[in-house]
Amino acid sequence: MSRLGKIPIPVPSGVKVAIDGSAIKVEGPKGKLDLTIEEGISIVSDEVGLVVSRTDDTREQRAAQGLVRSLVSNMVVGVSEGFKRDLELEGVGYRADAQGNEVYLTLGYSHPIVYTLPEGVQASVEKQTAITITGIDRQLVGEVAAGIRELRPPEPYKGKGVRYAGEYIRRKAGKAGAAGG
Predict the structure, then answer these.
(1) DSSP 3-state assignment of 37?
(2) Which of 63, 94, 96, 73 lies closest to 26 in space, CA to CA?
(3) Nearest to residue 145, comparing CAs of 165, 166, 171?
(4) What is residue 60's predicted lDDT score, i.e. its pLDDT?
(5) Does the pLDDT value for residue 181 go beyond 60?
């Protein structure tokens, strides 16, 4: 039996869960999400929360049970609390500005970059070098943060680029540091 798949998902107050065959809809104060579940996996609402179960014990069904459990758990957390990802810009002249559903980035190229945010994701810029991506869909928030980071990934020599908050960039010595040792 899957150890993670059988853990019940707690449903906080203010969150409504509707299970209709192979579809599940979760609605909360921040928004609503829905998911279609594959065959062989079922979700039952219980007094302790939502319980994910499977019909047989094949390898695919065991993997799908854990996957569906974490997807539904992320949906419940997303509509109640939301998800957030912080990015830092490191480099001379690197800055960001958020206006509406677009993020304007100056990352050392000859032109500014305009990153259009998908629906359901917001970006805020506290300082010119710190971007916060928020939304209710965990996967979408992660994809947007990875897409912005991909525009100028941090490089190992000077550490310049877009990085996740708290991300450690392993530094290299370079030509001058290697010859002097």
Answers:
(1) coil
(2) 73
(3) 165
(4) 87
(5) no
- What is the sign of the dihedral through the CA atoms of 49, 51, 63 and 71? negative
Residue with tokens 């019909």: 55
Question: The domain at 83-168 falls in which architecture?
Answer: Alpha-Beta Complex (3.90)
Q: How is the chain split into domains, by residue range?
A: 16-80, 83-168
Is the Cα dihedral 121, 146, 12, 16 positive or negative?
positive
Phi-psi sector, 156: left (phi>0), alpha (psi -120 to 50), beta: alpha
Residue 76 neighbours by CB under 8 Å, 6+ apart: 9, 10, 11, 12, 15, 17, 26, 28, 50
Q: Torsion-angle region of residue 49: left (phi > 0), alpha (psi -120 to 50) or beta? A: left
